[in-house]
Amino acid sequence: MKRIVCAAGVVAVIVAAALTSSQAGADDEATSIKAIMGKLHKGANSSLSVVKAALKSDSPDWAKIQSESKQIVVLGSSLTKTDPPKGDSAAFKTLAANYVKNGKDLEAAASKQNAKAAQDAVGKLSASCKECHSAHKGN
Fold first, then answer.
1. What is the pTM of this model?
2. Packing angle of the helix pair 89-111, 62-79 (nearest 10 deg)
């Protein structure tokens, strides 16, 4: 009887440890650079793609642009809390901070419904990819 209770206790500890580690892995994935950049840039439903599409309209959906620009700032800000797979971490954080600044410029332009300023900010956000990827993106 003692063996069964001990064995059950060991199994319970192993299960608890496995659940804890899988939850930690899920949190890491949610805040990984790859996950963040996917939400910002990957596919037609990504924040930047939605903004670009909305700005092409003769009458842009400013509420959508404002919402997505806030998302760009929030996700961009989370980039500043990560470390790059390669390259100098301080240089990466500088590039990430610049990304956030451009996101805030987009957010300000969207709140003023200024299409020209919004397009300029989107251009700067899009142009920042190559510099950061060349220096910091892993394989």
1. 0.75
2. 160
- Residue that wins the pLDDT comparison between 11 and 112: 112
Helix ranges (H only) for 31-114 are 33-41, 47-55, 62-79, 89-111
Is pLDDT above 50 for 21?
no
93: pLDDT strictly greater than 70: yes
Q: Is the per-residue pLDDT at 120 higher than 80?
A: yes
Distance, in Å, from the CA atom of 95 to the CA atom of 52, rounded to the nearest integer, reads: 21
DSSP class per residue in 15-46: HHHHHHHHHHHHHHHHTSHHHHHHHHHSSTTS
Which distant-in-sequence residues (6+ apart) come within 8 Å of 81 by Cβ?
Answer: 31
Q: How many CB atoms lie within 10 A of CB 130?
A: 9
Range 3-8, long-range pairs (CB < 8 A, 24+ positions): none
